[in-house]
């Protein structure tokens, strides 16, 4: 190419219209900008819809709490209620769906309604959590027995039906799993039960039923020695003034405070190399938030089984519901109340337990 031809071609290149890649980069930018804006707008529009179930359920909870008190003298719903899809179940399923937890399908419904006294201990491949409440539901088939890819909607409805929770409390408790759940494109939010063991999210040290992670890396199976130790805090049936109506050994809020106090004392001890203490567990961690979860977890079985040792032992040790021993939700004996166990009632019991632990710990002297 001559120098004149080269100069001409350079000039024509300069004056040439913008090339296609340049145009598409601009368009791409505009499209991305629009999509970003659209997603923000969509988020802002759907936020009230997502918050709505939360707001409604929290407003409703104190009402259910009061109704439970007022309806105490009336006959309780029958055990068959566990196998019926009630209006409250329908509304709760809708609230879960609105929250993006997934739709309850006909087969989910069938699974939740037909499970009962068909306990199977978990197999090696099954996913299990440090929570006996969730594991027991899987062991009885209220949620898939393998414990994997379980939608939060299924967990929520199963908690309500299995334990006779008020919809308000079932929803509130399930939202705790939101911290660790995953969302898939099919509009479902789900967990494997084992995900619940994520350290220091809800799972924590100084638990009543599991050794600390340092000593028990697999937080799935219960530590039977600790379960038995907790049950030893039960008041003997024949002791005057002992709690419990059935002449059974029973735990009460004071027993739970003492059990939690003992675990926290042992695990946080700086001078006991023989035990599960901080001396051997450099990663020991129990901030206030996790203490609250611990006391909360201990309050639920206490309320559901009225502290009865004969009902609590299978739940703690085998993660089995005490149908064989005579327990059934939805009966007059169940302390949950006519409308199921409310969040407010749970909060009162849990606060009593945590306050009890605080009052046992020696107060620090003021300087
Ligand atoms: C989606 C709902 C639930 C979530 C996310 C959840 C989460 C957890 C977690 C992470 C733990 C381990 C805490 C620790 O390290 O000690 C736990 C323990 C526990 N949970 Fe749940 N749980 C749920 C529902 C339930 C239900 C329905 C019950 C009772 C029926 C229950 C009763 C318990 C008990 C008794 C413990 C043992 C506490 C201890 O060892 O000190 N939970 N839960």
Automatic annotation (TrEMBL):
Region ranges (Disordered): 1-22
Domain Heme haloperoxidase family profile: 115-345
Biased composition (Low complexity): 1-16
Domain of life: Eukaryota
Keyword Ion transport assigned: no
Record SUPFAM superfamilies: Cloroperoxidase
Coiled coil ranges: none
MF (Gene Ontology): metal ion binding; peroxidase activity
Sorted UniProt keywords: Heme, Iron, Metal-binding, Oxidoreductase, Peroxidase
Cofactor needs: heme b
Sequence similarity: Belongs to the chloroperoxidase family.
The name this protein goes by in its record: Heme haloperoxidase family profile domain-containing protein
Provenance organism: Wallemia hederae
The organism's taxonomic lineage, starting at the top: Eukaryota, Fungi, Dikarya, Basidiomycota, Wallemiomycotina
């Amino acid at each position: 190419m001559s120098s004149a031809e080269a100069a001409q071609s350079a000039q024509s290149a300069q004056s040439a219209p913008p090339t296609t890649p340049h145009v598409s980069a601009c368009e791409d930018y505009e499209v991305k900008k629009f999509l970003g804006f659209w997603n923000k707008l969509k988020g802002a529009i759907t936020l009230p819809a997502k918050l709505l179930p939360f707001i409604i359920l929290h407003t409703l909870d104190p009402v259910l709490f009061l109704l439970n008190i007022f309806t105490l003298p009336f006959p309780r719903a029958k055990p068959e209620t566990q196998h019926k899809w009630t209006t409250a179940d329908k509304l709760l399923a809708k609230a879960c769906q609105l929250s993006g937890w997934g739709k309850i399908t006909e087969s989910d419904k069938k699974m939740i309604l037909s499970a009962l006294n068909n306990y199977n201990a978990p197999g090696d491949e099954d996913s299990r959590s440090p929570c006996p409440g969730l594991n027991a539901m899987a062991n009885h088939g209220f949620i898939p027995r393998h414990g994997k890819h379980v939608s939060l909607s299924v967990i929520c409805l199963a908690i309500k039906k299995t334990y006779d929770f008020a919809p308000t409390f079932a929803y509130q408790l399930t939202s705790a799993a939101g911290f660790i759940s995953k969302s898939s494109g099919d509009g479902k939010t789900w967990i494997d039960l084992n995900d619940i063991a994520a350290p220091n999210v809800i799972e924590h040290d100084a638990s009543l039923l599991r050794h600390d992670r340092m000593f028990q890396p697999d937080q799935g199976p219960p530590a039977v020695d600790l379960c038995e130790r907790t049950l030893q805090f039960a008041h003997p049936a024949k002791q005057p003034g002992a709690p419990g109506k059935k002449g059974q050994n029973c735990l009460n809020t004071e027993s739970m405070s003492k059990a939690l106090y003992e675990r926290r004392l042992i695990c946080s001890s700086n001078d006991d190399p023989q035990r599960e203490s901080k001396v051997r567990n450099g990663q020991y961690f129990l901030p206030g938030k996790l203490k609250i979860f611990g006391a909360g977890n201990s309050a639920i079985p206490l309320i559901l089984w009225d502290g009865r040792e004969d009902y609590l032992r299978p739940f703690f040790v085998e993660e089995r519901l005490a149908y064989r021993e005579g327990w059934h939700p939805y009966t007059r004996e169940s302390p949950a109340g006519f409308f199921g166990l409310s969040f407010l009632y749970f909060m009162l019991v849990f606060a009593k337990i945590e306050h009890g632990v605080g009052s046992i710990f020696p107060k620090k002297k003021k300087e």
